[in-house]
Amino acid sequence: MDIDSDLDLNLLQQFSCLGTTDRDVLVCQLQKVLGYQLNPAGCAFFLDMNNWNLQAAVCSYFDFEAPKENGPGMTLIKDVTIGEGEAVPPNTRFIKTWRIQNTGESDWPPMCTLRFVGGDHLGHTDSVGVESLRPGDTTDVSVEMASPGKPGIYQGQWRMASLGGQVFGEVIWVILTVAEGGLLAVTQQMEAFHQLGSPPRGTPTVPPAGNPFATSPGTVTELAPPCERPSSPFSGFPATPPHQRQPFPHQQHASEPPSPMRTGLPHEHGAVGDGVIRCPSALNHSPDDMMS
């Protein structure tokens, strides 16, 4: 009976190995069960170590290579992609940006990367470098991608990984809708043009030049009361009553006769006006008188 039991176990093991002959399918299944914590090469290693038995490979991974609780941690805070949620036209480049945070108790190891681990590979590269963060710090990570040529819905998974290949933190999912007339690329181009026209961050804003004598909006100019207004430069002179004021030489009352000085004519009675000096006419003098 013991021999029969051993044979039955061997047959069960062989049948379990013959459940599927496609090793790529087993690698994808193991990667999905583990939450994309391993890359395809790591999944193939554990499957090969367990004679390509999926259940045994899962147990081996959690026994020997499970992430430690005191390891680095990462949490996805927000997808800050410009135009997030909009469709993308086929064969179009765009940029995905995520805001992540170090939620662990220790600093991230140097030279960490955000790495593609499964699904539809939409990026031009398999990984991008990420700066080392201290606990509680956040940063934005951007990956340049390109949409496939066929309309549809595509998805991929990205994870943080150390220099040695150990992944940690949450899985970042990329879910993309490819459709004719998508606006994601146009939205990102318009935002890029807007950033080119805006001043760099930290540049002080210079107010526009205006009238230096103009008052600022909202300023009310109050006039000084009469007692406080500046006096005239002639206010120090004594004022003359109207009845004592003397007329100017050119002013004359209507009752007075016309002045000979003004008209140049003799008075009504033929006499010269008062104060007017007339020279004797040359016709009343002889040449001898003029020579003397």
UniProtKB/TrEMBL annotation:
Compositional bias annotation for Low complexity: 242-252
GO biological process: macroautophagy
Pfam families reported for this sequence: N_BRCA1_IG (PF16158), UBA_4 (PF14555)
Domain Nbr1 FW span(s) in chain numbering: 81-178
InterPro entries: C6orf106_UBA-like (IPR039517), Ig-like_fold (IPR013783), Nbr1_FW (IPR032350)
A molecular function (GO) term: ubiquitin binding
Chain residue ranges for the region called Disordered: 195-292
Gene3D superfamilies: DNA helicase RuvA subunit, C-terminal domain, Immunoglobulins
Compositionally biased residues, Pro residues: 201-210
GO cellular component, one term: phagophore assembly site
Name of the protein: Nbr1 FW domain-containing protein
The organism's taxonomic lineage, starting at the top: Eukaryota, Metazoa, Ecdysozoa, Arthropoda, Chelicerata
